[in-house]
Write a structure and sequence with these properties.
With 325 residues, the chain is an alpha+beta fold. The chain is built from five helices and eleven strands. Among the domains are: 62 residues, no CATH class; 131 residues, Jelly Rolls (Sandwich). The longest helix has 85 residues. The relative contact order is 0.09. GO terms for molecular function: phospholipase A2 activity.
Length: 325
């Protein structure tokens, strides 16, 4: 069986022509390609970026005969390459825009800082004469004090100098005692009082839940904390506390406790379950507090709570206290 070598020979000739043509095309690219076309009097940005793609496009057009490709093939390759370059340029322009914004921000801050520095320099220049005057006054006072000290040391007999030191310590001790008495009297005479009520109803409170009377009307000395609902004693003394609670009608009841630190110092009960309307209960007591002792109102543990603690514009649940002078 004879095999014809003619088709294989033709294919080899075509491949040889294509490869030779490809080399000839790229060796003569200076003649075949003229770069990117730009309209007259138009400035083409990024021309150097697109020029290699334009050259390859021109060479492809001139070599289609030798490499057996179509003009559409050249156009497709060229479009893909130009799209890729365009995407890269858009990304670069966005980055440049962000950098420009940052540069403008830094320049603006630099102007503001320069103005602040200028203002500070002007202030220093304005205060410089006053500083010199103060320094001169201090130097004069120091000279006067040193002169008086030398005179006192010289005039005091040796046996009286130790007595003078003892006398000075006694005077300082007496002054300290008087200052302590004055501070105690000032603390004892200061007004300590507060009054606050609930802004909103407390829905279904739990046992030992602290009632936070958050609307403060009076708070002399600022010793009541409207965020925790606690009063902290600033000084030792006798204090009066009073609490009034309102609940709704039938089927509702709860007990309440006034607590000092962790000790219950008073309890009362609100029980409107057999009444048709609202029911009030209140408790007023006097107690001895030491500095930093805290007092607050909480739900009692005598009964399970049934209902809500109410606070309406016409009837407020409130907590008040003051120090007896």
């Amino acid at each position: 069986m004879k095999v014809s070598m003619r088709p294989l020979f033709v294919i080899l000739i075509i491949i040889d022509l294509c490869s030779g043509a490809h080399e000839r095309c790229y060796q003569s690219h200076d003649i075949l390609a003229n770069g990117c076309s730009v309209p007259i009097l138009k400035k083409f940005l990024y021309k150097k970026t697109f020029t290699p793609a334009c050259l390859r496009h021109d060479i492809c057009y001139h070599c289609v005969i030798w490499c057996m490709v179509t003009f559409m093939y050249c156009e497709g390759i060229h479009t893909t390459e130009m799209t890729f370059l365009k995407t890269k340029i858009i990304q670069m322009e966005k980055s440049m825009s962000i950098q420009d914004d940052r540069i403008r921000y830094l320049e603006k801050n630099e102007v503001l800082q320069d103005q602040e520095i200028k203002n500070l320099k002007e202030e220093i220049y304005r205060l410089r004469p006053d500083m010199k005057s103060v320094k001169r006054s201090m130097n004069s006072m120091m000279k006067i004090l040193m002169k008086n000290r030398r005179r006192l040391v010289r005039d005091y007999p040796p046996n009286l100098r130790s007595d003078s030191r003892r006398h000075k310590s006694i005077i300082q001790r007496d002054v300290g005692i008087e200052e302590s008495k004055t501070n105690l009297m000032r603390q004892a005479s200061q007004i300590i009082a507060f009054y606050a009520y609930l802004n909103n109803d407390v829905k279904s409170p739990g046992i030992h839940q602290t009632l936070v009377f958050d609307n403060v009307i009076t708070n002399e000395g600022k010793w009541y904390n409207k965020f925790s609902g606690t009063f902290s004693a600033p000084i030792n003394g006798l204090y009066v506390f009073s609490c009034s609670i309102i609940m709704d009608g039938p089927g509702q009841y709860a007990s309440f406790e006034i607590v000092k630190n962790a000790d219950i110092i008073g309890t009362f009960f609100v029980d409107p379950q057999y009444d048709e309307g609202y029911k009030y209960s209140s408790l007023t007591l006097v107690t001895d507090l030491h500095q930093t002792d805290t007092v607050f109102v909480r739900i009692g543990s005598s009964y399970a709570v049934v209902g809500n603690v109410l606070s309406k514009p016409y009837a407020r649940s409130s907590f008040t206290g003051w120090k007896l002078n």
